[in-house]
Each structure stands twice: as structure tokens, then as C-alpha cells.
Amino acid sequence: MDRVALSIGSINIYWYSIFILIGVLIGSLIVYLEAKKQKLDKEQLVNLVFYTLIFSFLGARLYYVIFNLDYYSSHVIEILYIWNGGLAIHGGIVAACIFLFYYTKKNHINTLKLLDILVLGLIIGQVIGRWGNFFNGEAYGPIVTEEFLKNQYLPSFIIDGMYINGNYHMPTFLYESLWNLIGFFLLLLIRKFAKIKTGQLTGFYLMWYSVIRFIIEGFRTDSLMLGPLKMAQIVSIILFCIGLYLFFIKKKRKLYREDDIYEKV
Fold first, then answer.
1. Which segments of 137-261 does DSSP mark as H helices, in order?
2. Band (10; pLDDT cuts 50, 70, 90)
3. Cys staple from 119: which of 54, 97, 111, 205, with CB 3.0 to 4.6 Å?
4. Cβ atoms within 10 Å of 188's Cβ, excluding its own
5. What distances in angstroms separate CA 171 from CA 91, 93, 198, 209, one per listed residue?
6. SS3 169
């Protein structure tokens, strides 16, 4: 699989970067449309999306670098080479949430209401971004046979792309992408329920994504490790519990359609 989509002189444009950019653009468009419906101030929305993306990318990269510190301490300049991969979604989520908590409190915005808007853009961004992993030859599972892949009725280009380092591998990137695509449509459906409350969309997203990430991480061969444990599985358990609390347990919330995005001062 050729990682380079286009070469202009000595400059290479990678498929990974293209899919990340497409995911950001489409996710941002969805957030814009949702925030507009909720009457969020346009200037605040632009600032919010701009800085959230910056902190998300920084957090995602920092998270990955920390868990590969032995390598990057000897190859410091490669910390900047994000086109080679190495963006950990959990690091991006944590960094974004820290910034969002600060921003919403400063501007008197309902944090949970805003998160309910953002998760719609986030999950579709993940759907698209995983295809960047495919072209980068990463985020794959254990060795399997070609017959195993053909029995899943996969297109030939995916089967060919899963031939890495002399072996065929399980396309875990694809499973996660499809699962999140289903999750996106479920979020669109759930938000139409009359009795859905603020924070429950965020709770559903956290549970939905954490389930597939925990399972997929058990198959992946490039996991970030904390001793003998896979860090993504630990974080997935934590996020699932938070999602469970937001969806089923947290009380005294207004209905999603009736809740104002701005808090009374």
C-alpha cells in the first residue's frame, strides 16, 4: 500500500494526512450545523472549534509520544512527523475535555449540552480517520490467512492493503470504522427521542466507542502499553463507566430539546 497520495517536487502528501483532514472538515461541519441549531454564538463557535482541534491534536500526539518515550527521546525531531501516524484518540479526548471545561465555564456555556453537539462531529471524524490508518499500514490485528479475509467479503483493495510485512492481517481499523458509523446514525436517532436529556448523547458515545475499542485493542498488535496492560483498554473501561453514569444515573437534567446552551449568570 502506497502511503503517498501525491508528490509535488520533494514534498509528499500522505493519505493519512488527507483522511485526517477530511475527517476534521466533515466533523467540524456537523458541529457547526448542530451548534447553529442550538443558537451558539458564531464567534464563540469558531474559537471553540479552532482551539479544540489544536488541543486535541497536541493531546493525541503527546499521549502517543509519552508511551513511546524510549524511541522519541533518541529521535526528538520525529515528534513532529505526524504524517507517519501516532495520534492517540484517547489523548485527544482528554486534552479536548480539559480545554472545553475551561472554555465553557469562562463563557457560561452548558458543558454537557456542548459535548452532546461535539460527539456527533467526533464520531464521524473517527470513522473517516481510521482509513488514514489503513493507508499508513497501522492499527491492524494479528496474522490471518487470505482465505479468512475473503470469507468476510472484503473488497480486494482492503485484502491487498492488509498484506503487511509478508503476512495478511486482521483489518481492525475497518471494524472500528464501521462500528462508529453505526454509532453516528444511532446518535442521530437517539437525539430525536422526546425524553432524551442533556448529557445522554455524550454518555451513549462514550459507552459505544469504549466497547469496540476495548474489543479491538485485544486484537491490535501496536497497542500502547502500561506495563503488561494495554492502555487503551484501561481508558476504555474508565470512559465506559463515565458514559454509563451520564446516560443512566445522572439526575436533575433538562430535556435535550428544552435545555439552553447558555447557562444563566
1. 146-150, 156-161, 172-190, 200-217, 231-244
2. confident
3. 205
4. 12
5. 23, 24, 35, 17
6. strand
Q: CA angle, corner 1, sides to 163 and 230, nearest 5? A: 60
d(CA 56, CA 95): 6
Q: Which residues contact 119 (CB under 8 A, 6 or more apart)?
A: 187, 201, 202, 205
Chain mean pLDDT for the chain:
93
Q: pLDDT band for position 251 (50/70/90)?
A: confident
C-alpha cell at 110: 452548558
**Burial bucket for residue 199 (CB in 10 Å: 0-12, 13-18, 19+):** buried
In the predicted structure, residue 213 carries a pLDDT above the cut 90: yes
> Nearest to residue 259, comparing CAs of 117, 119, 123?
117
Rounded distance, CA 103 to CA 20, Å? Answer: 25
Residue 132 is placed in which grid cell?
A: 488514514
Distance CA 51, CA 154 (A): 38
DSSP 30-66: HHHHHHHHTT--HHHHHHHHHHHHHHHHHHHHHHHHH
Query: What is the tens place of the pLDDT at every residue in 80-125?
Result: 998 888 899 999 999 999 999 999 999 999 999 999 999 999 999 9
pLDDT band at 265 (very low <50, low <70, confident <90, very high): low
> What are the pLDDT digits (tens) for 160-188?
999 999 999 999 999 999 999 999 999 99
Place of cell 500522505: 14
Residues 49 and 156: their CA atoms lie apart, in Å, by 37
Q: Half-sphere exposure (CA, 13 Å, Cβ side) for 19? A: 24
